[in-house]
Amino acid sequence: MRTFHAEDPDDAPGSVFRRVQEYAEVMPASQFFCLATACVLWRAPIPPGLMRRRDASGVFVESPLDVGVFLPDRASRTRGVRGRSIAPGWADVVTAPVDGIRLTSPASTWAMMGQVLSEDELVILGDALVRMPQRDADPPPLATVDELRRAAEVGRRPGVLRIREALPFIRTRSWSPQETRMRLVLVRDGGLPEPELNWPVLVDRAVVANIDLAYPDLMLGLEYDGEHHMTDAAQWAKDIRRLEMLADLGWSIMRVTKRDLDSLRGPFIARVRSRVLGIRRRSS
């Protein structure tokens, strides 16, 4: 299990860690952290507005901590806490070995978030929980797809339809929320073949690059460029060299931005479909 500790108190996750530690000191043994608070503790991606938002005057307002209790016990009414009454058996509760913090297991947390998140957000969260390590130093997955499936089958919980719709799209090799979004836009919305995720490019049996989304049979790859790729000069230069190397190896790379996945989804799908069909025609 990952160790929980306070980070920068001025950022949203750091504030949650600090408040969790403070409340954990007085929290009754019957209570545990759940929902969005548990997501933050597991360091899993959720929309930032769930734990912190700006009010009408522009000041940040922190959301209450989500604290659960199993029925028939009564939910907490403590200030700064949003009490949640949960049916027995609808969540597994675990204890962090270092901090002693009680919270819902990763799989239970994901299933409970069906009442809060959209289908896309549930896939993003699920991908993060089951993600296989990218490097030797990376931690192991927090859950398996089978564990998510079992959690989804427990009771007719709120959001169960979204949970069931999201589950088939969860994959173990998506390494970022935007990679997940890109895949969903292409496959679910665009009806395109499912690409390989973080496809390793080998030269003399050594991995020289991992392509975010790839169609290896077509030597076509898609790479998501976040804003830091545009504003960081060193990263920009590194990207150029990397794309040149992949082109020399025969890869055609399409670069994708946040705008493509938001306001330009239709044109983005059309561009990829056109590229796929064009390569297939040339190779036939």
Automatic annotation (TrEMBL):
UniProt-recorded name of the protein: DUF559 domain-containing protein
Record-linked InterPro entries: Restrct_endonuc-II-like
SUPFAM superfamilies: Restriction endonuclease-like (SSF52980)
Lineage: superkingdom: Bacteria
Gene3D superfamilies: VSR Endonuclease (3.40.960.10)
